Amino acid sequence: MKNKTINRYSNHGPKEEWLKQYFELEEEFHNNHNLGIVMITKFRRFLKDAELLSSDKKNEFTKTAKYIKEIGRKTDISNGIMAINLAETSQVYWYIKNIKPYETYTAKKLSEMIEDAGVTRFGVNGTRASITRILETDLGSKVGLGSVEKDGARLISITRSSWIRPNKLVILYGIYKFAVNNNNCYGFTLNELLKNEKE
User: Fold this and answer.
1) Which of 5, 115, 121, 137 is deepest in the core (most CB within 10 A)?
2) Among 8, 15, 3, 6, which Cα is nearest to 132's?
3) N- to C-terminal Cα distance for the chain?
């Protein structure tokens, strides 16, 4: 896991329209967005976590981003690749480990779980909002991270789903990332894969 706090993006998780604009403008996005200073800082963090933006100060459109743009940002493969990369971050990793598929969590229950994970009371609402925003992108529907129920802007609940027909290329990419994250160990058994904590 790349980082420790699950309050990774505060209350500025990504929005679908930000992702759309980023892929349309590529590196020009950084000069042509209308996001506030905190929003762009958190969005850049998200893009780097998803490996769509270079992790150095150059803010370059990565090879991964170019591939995703080429095959289509809204495809299952694209969203699967982004989800695998994001699973290495504390927030998405926590979500995957703690939110069970096909269970509904009320906003109150989700807040309690976030606080139990060590987020300060001040940061709970922001973390919950960030998780909600991630689920409202294609990551929620395309690869089964989940869906949200709202009453206007107020969160009622979230429900994690699952990826019904996972793409073989994405599965291979996940295994590749597993190997890279385990000291480039490309020879491992299925048993080792299932036992490893670096899910």
Assistant:
1) 137
2) 15
3) 9
Q: Give this prediction's pTM.
A: 0.89
Between CA 179 and CA 164 the distance in angstroms is: 25
Contact 134, 92 (CB under 8 A): yes
- The single residue listed with the structure tokens 């991630």 is 134
Angle between helices 121-136 and 90-98 (to 10 degrees): 80
Q: Residues with Cβ < 8 Å from 52, sequence gap 6 or more?
A: 22, 61, 62, 64, 65, 68, 82
Axis crossing angle, helix 37-49 with helix 76-86, rounded to the nearest 10: 100
DSSP structure class, residue 106: E
Instruction: Provide DSSP, 16-28.
Output: HHHHHHHHHHGGG
pLDDT in tens, 1-58: 556 789 999 989 999 999 999 999 999 999 999 999 999 999 999 999 999 999 887 8
pLDDT digits over 115-166, tens only?
999 999 889 999 999 999 999 999 999 999 999 999 999 999 999 999 988 9
Could you give phi then psi for residue 151, rounded to 5 degrees? -115, 95
